[in-house]
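Morning - zinc ion inputs below, output right after.
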Amino acid sequence: MHSSVKDVQASALSGRIDDAIDRLAPGAEQLLEQLVGINSINPGFPGIDRESVIGGETACTRLIGAYLSKLDFELNDVAADPQRINLAAVLKGTGGGRSLLFNGHVDTVAPFKPEAWTSGDPWKPVRRGEELFGLGSTDMKGGLAAACLAIAALKEAGVRLKGDLQVHAVVGEETMDHENGTTAVIKAGFRSDAAIVAEPSSQPEPLTIAPVSAGNFNLEISVKGHGTHAGNRGAAIRAGGEGPSAGVNAVEKLIKVVQALQDLEQEWGITKRHPAFPPGLFSLVPGVFHGDVGVPSVGYMADHAYVGYLVWYAPQEDPEAVKAEIERHVHHAAQLDPWLRENPPTFSWRSHWPVADVSTEHPLVDVLVRSRSAVLGPPPAGRPATASFNAVSDASFLQAQGIPAIVLGPGNIRYAHAVDERLNMREWRECARIYARAIAEWCGTAD
Ligand SMILES: [Zn+2]
C-alpha cells in the first residue's frame, strides 16, 4: 500500500507542528505562569469586594492580547463594563475556509482556604515535576495558554489558514455573567462557524471531547417557623402540649423538605438518564442551609430557614418541567406536615444555566476526534469518542447565540475550585498538539 500524497503532506505538517510546539512551549508556559500570577477573581463573586479585585481580568486579557498580536492577530476590546475588558482577537484567513473561535474565561473563583495551599500563595505559580500549581491553572488559564501555543506553532510551522480564527478571552464566567463576557463578545459581532471552549475536560479520559453538558438551576427554598424561647420546646412538640402556638422550629421543618428532595434525587438516579453522562449525575445538591430567629443564638426556635440547592438536570429535559416537578414534590411532602400544609415552603429560582448540547455528528466533533486520536491514540476499546462535560461553561451561551460549541481543554475539573489547583503540563502540551491539528483541518490550509 502506498500512502497518498495528501497523507504524506499531512504527516509532514504534523511533524512540523509538533517540533514547533516543543520549541515554543517554554514561552507559552511563561505566559501561563504570568496569567496565574495575576489575581483575577471574578469581581461579582460572593463575598468579594469588587474594588479589591477589579482590573485583574483586564490584566489577563491584555497579556493574551500581547502574545497574539505577535502572531498577526488584530485585537479588539469588548467591554460592556468598562472596567472588565474582554479580548476578541481575530486572525483573518486567506478565504474559503471554515471559521473557528476559541473561548476561555480569565476570571477565577475566590480561593477558599488560601492559607491551606502548600505553596503558601494561590497566585504564586509553582512547578513540581510536570504539575503546575496555582489558582486558575486548570480553570482555565491553562486552556487559553494552550490555544495560544497551538496558534503560535501553526505560524512557526508556516501554516496559513483559509478560514478566520478568533480567540475570545472573556470575563465573568464564574458568576454566569455572560452578558458582560461571552455573550457581549458575540453580540459585538465576533462570530464563527463553530467554537472550542477550552475548559478543563480531562474526565473521564484525558482531554475528553465534550459536546454536551447538563443544565443547572440555583434554587433557594424557604420555610417559616414560629420563633420563641427554646424553653418552650416541650410545649411546642410534646403530646398534650400547646402545639404550634407555643413555637415552631423552622430548621426542623426545613429538614423535612431536604429529606423529601433526597427521595426525589434517588428517584432521578433511576429515571433520569442520558447516554453521554455517568449514572447519577442529575441530582439535587443542597450547598447552603441556614436558620435562625434573626440572631445567631441557640436560645431560640428559628422562625425562618432556607436551603440553597444546585440542581443538575438532563439535556433532553424541558427546564420549566424540571422546576414544576421539584415544586410539586415538595408540595406533596408538605401535605404530610400540619404546619407546612398551612405555611407552604416558598421557592426562589435564582439563576438558570442552560444546557449545552451539540450533536455528536457535528463536523467539528469529527475533526476533534481525529486530532485527538492522532496525538493520544484512539479511545480505549468500547469507550465512546465523546462524553459529557460534568460542569457548566460558556458553551451554553455560545450555543444560545447560534454557535455550536464543544468543550475540550487541559486539566481535570476535580482540581478546579480546590486547594492546590494544578495542571499537568504534559497534558497541556498534548492539548496544544490537538488544537493545532484541529485548527488546520477545520479552517483549511492555504498551501
Ligand atoms: Zn471554568
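Note: The chain has a mean pLDDT of 95.

O.
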